[in-house]
Each structure stands twice: as structure tokens, then as C-alpha cells.
Amino acid sequence: MEHHSLLRDLIVLYGLAVVIAFLARRARMPTVVGYLLTGLIAGPFGLRMIPDTAGVEILAEVGVALLLFTIGLELSIVKLLKMREVVLGAGSMQVGATILICFGGLLFVGFMAREGLFWGFLVAASSTAIVLKLLQERGELDTVHGRIVLGVLLFQDLCVVPMMALVPALAAPGAGQALTILWALVKSLGLVGGILLGARYLFPPLLKAIVLVRSRELFVIASIFFALGTAWGASQFGLSLALGAFLAGIVLSESEYGHQIMAEILPFRDSLNSLFFISMGMLIDLRFAAQHWPTLTGITLGIIVLKFVTAGAPVMALGFPPRLAVLVGLGLAQVGEFSFVLLREGEKAAMIPDERYQMFLGAAVLTMMLTPGMIAIAPRLSQRLGQKGRRRDRLALDEQTAQLKDHVIICGYGLNGRRLARLLRENQLPYIVIEMNSAVVRSARTDGENIYFGDVSNYEILKHAGAARARGIVFAISDPAILPRAISNARIANPDLHIIARIKRIEDARELRVAGATDVIAEELEAWMEIVTRILRLYGMPREVVAQQIVSLREGDYEMLRILPIPGQPLRHLAHLLPQVELDLFYVLPDSRLCGTDLRTLNLRTRTGVNVLAVVRETDVVHNPPGSLRFEEGDQVLLMGSREQLAAAFDLLNQPRLAVPPPPDSWNPS
Asked: What is the pLDDT of residues 195-240, one digit of tens each?
């Protein structure tokens, strides 16, 4: 009947986890927190729904092994080499500083050296699952700060190998502990090297033979065997199960079957991995937390502040602006999943007393619960810092752009920025590049590129880049956190500036248009158009018909968001039909004195000769607006007139204090 008892326990835990994890997600908390709360409620310190946790803990160990196996699969060596500056630079500084500060601080308050170092290991790691999930949901994974966060998380994951190898050595008796630690490192490195070499030359040929059989079931069983078999083999040589599985994942990440293995393992990993966090939640003593809540709160805040500083400072040390340091610091200011794995290993080795074990466990859960809120407020805090530009950079820009006129400002020197700069250079068109990665700036400047360091969301940087005299500005970055502010600042610097913005998701496009972008290029929509084009051409449809259908689709998709003009069809394409007549858009910016003024009182046509053809307000378009229409913040006013008339109208509308004439029929003694 013992197996029936385990089955009952699993049914209880999974049923309770479904309810609590569902409520946690509705409250915008990570599912990991829901699993920990499930264990807290069902465990021996809660409702005692699970009398014997031994069976659950065995399955949890398997879940941890599969978790580290899949994380190893995601740690591509090629990816690490591409991000080596961030991974080795920011990552090593963050982990090293966290361990040293934690170690020194705990020694000062009376902790033993080995326990202080172990606490440093626990605090150094951040939550890969929670942070990447939140950044993905916010569309910030491909931003500059998203890539930095990913690089630091990758380095933290790599550091698990030596940390887990050192735990048994740290638990050894005090006499000769330094030699024990050194021997443990040498032995673990030798074992790790042996496992990597063996798996590198053994697993791929076996997988290739299994794939040729064309049996999905056999492939799944073989993948699990390689993961758990390597984990068990590592444990026989003194390493942990989790560390062995992690090494197997790293080896297979470079094989051609890595992605398929990941897809097959994920369901098993997620189902068993949840048991690990549930089992950790069972160890939380809620009564202890209630009795020691002041100390627990202090430890939680201490961890958050320490991680914020040690994650943000390396970002600034690498030459990034303070705004990015805030985003990265708050994004990594929590305890990670690997900390629980290390904590379990430390508990087995008697590395940490029960009271401090409970303290860390409670503080770790609290930092995870606070993570969504910290990531949500990070952009607001960073925007305030983004307004402070570096005087040195502004002076350098002044010297370069003093003679520039009618040029293009390229914001961002990624793939799109580099290609645009090369095209402009080949056509002998003036341009300047603004980039906020100092290493990229130094490298590009060595190659003769006209590039300068600066934060493109900073009004002063745009001003000193010559935005007032530029013909256009291209935001070749896809960062929804800063683009609206950057576009608004560019529009304030030059109301006539042609602003082109790139964004990944079409749902973010409306906010950029309201901020003042002339053209918004939504990558997912343009990719869809390219797919349609190739499919239609595949069936031999004439190019003219394909082009006509693409124009129709683009108009329909962009019209849903009232994004005017349609990319590739600016308003000025009608100029040849109306000689000496131009069309232009005026944007009612935030805090404009135009807000609240009606069209009749302004009397634009009589005073400047300009006609108001339409007003675009959010999702509505008012054609031939009546005189009673009052302007609101974010309105886009479509104007028609000669170049001189439009210039006079823009001068009038941009006045700091609107000069409103008296009504024609009012009495005037003069």
C-alpha cells in the first residue's frame, strides 16, 4: 500500500498546486511562488496533508536533475562566446562582488568563515525562470538591458558548477580545510572534464543511431537516460545529481538534437520540477517567520539592496548609462532557483543551522514575490536618471555636429544601425550614430565610424546631436521601455523631424505614434508581409498582383491602429497632385498650451492661411473638424497649405503662450 500512499500524496499536492498557482498567476506572481506556498500549506508546518515527505523528495531530486539538464541545454557555448563581454565582465563582477560583500559582512557580525562563504553562494544567484519570463511578457528580452540580464544569468548558471563542488569541502572539519577545498576543486574539475569528454564522444553517436530508428518514444527514453544516467554517474564520484545532469545538458546543447531533446524533456521537467519547489515550501516554518518577522524583513531588504548594487555597478563599470544600471539592478535583485538547490545540498552537509536555514528560506521567497513589482517600477526610476546626460559626451557631440545640417541621426548600432550607416556613407549622405554601449562605440570609432556614446532617451543628447537641424532620426533599437520618451524628446527638439521607429510587436506601435513617430515599422507585421509575398510568388502570382495585395493588407493592418501615414506612403506623396501645396502633421505634446483651445478661437485659416483637414485622436479620426473641437494632449492635426503658411502655423502653435485674438464681433475701443 506504500505506492498508493505516494499516489495519494501526489494527487493532493498537484491538485492544491493547480489552485494556488492559478491564483498566484492571477495576482501576477511567479508560479514558483505558488509552488512554495503549496508546500507551505500542505507540509508539516501547515495543514499536515502529507504525513511522509520522503517519496515526494525523491521525485523532487529527479525534477531538479531535469531542471539543470535543460538549463545546460540552453547554455550554448556559441551564445556564451558572442556575449562574452557581458557574461565574463558584468557576470563575474556581479557574482564576485556579491560573494565578497556577503562573506565580509557576515564575518563582521560573527558568522563562521565557511558559513559566510556559503551564504555568499546562496545570495549570488538570481532567478532565471522568473526574470526571463517577466522580461519576455513585457517584450524587453531583446532590449539592451534584457541582453545584459541574460548574460549575467548565464554566468550565474555556470557558477553553479564550482559552487556545488565546493559545498562538501566547505563542510569538512576546520583543520586543513584550505587543502580540502583545493583538492575538491582539482578533483571536481577533473571529474567534470572526464564527464564532458565522455559524454561529448559517446552521446552524439548513440543519439544518431536512435534517431535513425524513427521512434519518438525511444528518443524520449534515451534523452531521459542520458540526463539521469550522467547525474547518477557524477554522484558516484562525489558530485551531486544535479551537477551531473547540468554537465550532460551542456554537452548535448552543441549537438544537432539539442532543440528536440529540450522539447521532449520539458513536460517531464515541469511536472517534476514543481515538486522540488513544493518540497522546499514544506520546510518553511510559518510560525518561526511570524516570531522573527523584523529580522526576516531586514534580511530580505538587505539581499535586495546588495543584489541591486552588485548587479547595477558592473553595468556602469562597462560604460553603460545609469538608466540601464537601474533596470539591470532591479531585474536581478532576488534569490534564484539554484539557491534552493545549493541550500538543499548545504542542509545535507550540515552547513547551516536550522534557524538561519529558515531565515534564508523565508527571505528568498519574499524576494521572489517582490520581483514582478520591482521589474514593473524599474522603467519609471530609470527615466529620471536618463534625464541626466554626461557633460563630456555632450561636448564631444557639440564639436562634431556644429557643422552638420540636414543629417540623419541613427540611434543604436546593432545590425540595422550598422547597415543603415554603411548605406548612408556609400551614398555620401550626412549622419551621426548614437550608441549607449561604450565598448561598441570604442570599437566602431577605431574603424572610423562617426559614432558617439549617449542615451537616446535623453533630450540633451538628442539636442547636442543636432536634432533641431536634422532631416530625420531612426531609432534602430526595439526597446518599448524608452522609445516613447525618446520619440517625444526628438519631436520636442524638432517638430518637423521625420522620426522612424522600429518595434517588435504591433500592439506597441500606437504608443509610439502618439509620442510623435512619423513612421512605425512593426517587425512582426513586416515579417508577415514578407511571408505572404513569398507564398503568393510560390504559386506563380504576378508581381503586380502581389504588390497590390500587400498594399491592401498593410493598409488594413496599420489602419487598425490608426497609424498614419502608412510606412512607404508618406503624406507628401500627394504633393505632385497639388502644386505648391503641402500636407503636414502637428502633434499636441504633453503640457502644450494648445490643450483646451477650440479650433474656432484659434482661427488658423484667417491668421496663417492653413486649412485643418483632420484631427487624429487615439483610434478616432475627425474629418473636416468643426470649430467647436477642442484640442487635447496627443492629438495629431493634419494641416494643408504652402510651405510658408505651414511654417507660420507651426510658429503660432508652438508659441509658449498662445496669442488668441478676440472674437470678430466683440467691442474693441481702439
From this structure: 667 666 777 787 778 888 888 888 888 888 877 887 787 777 766 6
Domains, the chain, ranges and CATH? 2-384 (1.20.1530.20), 391-559 (3.40.50.720), 571-653 (3.30.70.1450)
pLDDT of residue 578: 52
Q: Give first-to-last CA distance, the chain, whole Å.
A: 106
Residue from 246, 269, 254 nearest 207 by CA: 254
Residue 373, CB half-sphere, CA atoms under 13 Å: how many? 7
Predicted confidence (pLDDT) per residue in 589-642, tens digit: 777 778 888 888 888 888 888 988 888 887 678 888 888 888 888 888 888 888
Cα separation, 104 vs 236, in Å, equals 35
Residues 6+ apart with CB under 8 A from 596: 630, 631, 632
> Among 330, 280, 375, which Cα is nearest to 64's?
280
User: How buried is residue 142: exposed, middle or buried, by Cβ count under 10 Å (0-12/13-18/19+)?
Assistant: middle
* Residue 489 pLDDT: 87
Q: Is residue 528 exposed (0-12), middle (13-18) or buried (19+ Cβ within 10 Å)?
A: middle
Strands (E), 487-551: 498-503, 519-522
**Residue pair 248/65 in contact by the 8 Å Cβ criterion:** no
CB 515 within 8 A of CB 491: yes
Residue labelled with grid coordinates 509610439: 512
Percent of the chain as helix, strand, coil, to the nearest 5 = 65, 10, 25
Identify the helix (H) or strand (E) that includes residue 617.
Answer: strand 611-617
- Give the DSSP H/E element, type plus range, for residue 431: strand 431-435
**How would you classify residue 257: left for phi > 0, otherwise alpha for psi between -120 and 50, otherwise beta?**
alpha
CA atoms in the 13 A half-sphere facing the CB of 593: 10
Q: What are phi and psi of 302, to 5 degrees?
A: -60, -40
In 574-609, which positions are buried (b, 16+ CB within 10 angstroms) versus exposed (e)?
Answer: eeeeeeeebbbbbbbbeebebeebebeebebeeebe
> At 427, is the secondary structure helix, strand, or coil?
coil
Cell of 197: 569528454
What distance in Å separates the CA atoms of residue 415 and residue 464, rounded to the nearest whole number?
25
The tens digit of pLDDT for each residue in 138-178 reads 777 777 788 888 888 878 877 877 787 777 777 766 545 55
Q: For residue 519, is pLDDT > 90? A: no
- Rounded Cα distance between 323 and 383, Å, is 7
By three-state DSSP, how is residue 381 classified? helix
C-alpha cell at 380: 519609471
- Residue 500 β-bridge partners: 474, 519
Cis bond upstream, residue 565 (ω within 30) = yes
Is 633 within 8 Å of 592 (Cβ atoms)?
Answer: yes
Residue 290, phi then psi, degrees to nearest 5: -65, -35
Burial 59-91 (b: 16+ CB within 10 A, else e): bbbbbbbbbbbbbbbbbeeeebeebeebbebbb
Question: Is the link from the previous residue into 570 a cis peptide, with omega within 30 of 0?
Answer: no
Q: Is the pLDDT of residue 301 over 90?
A: yes
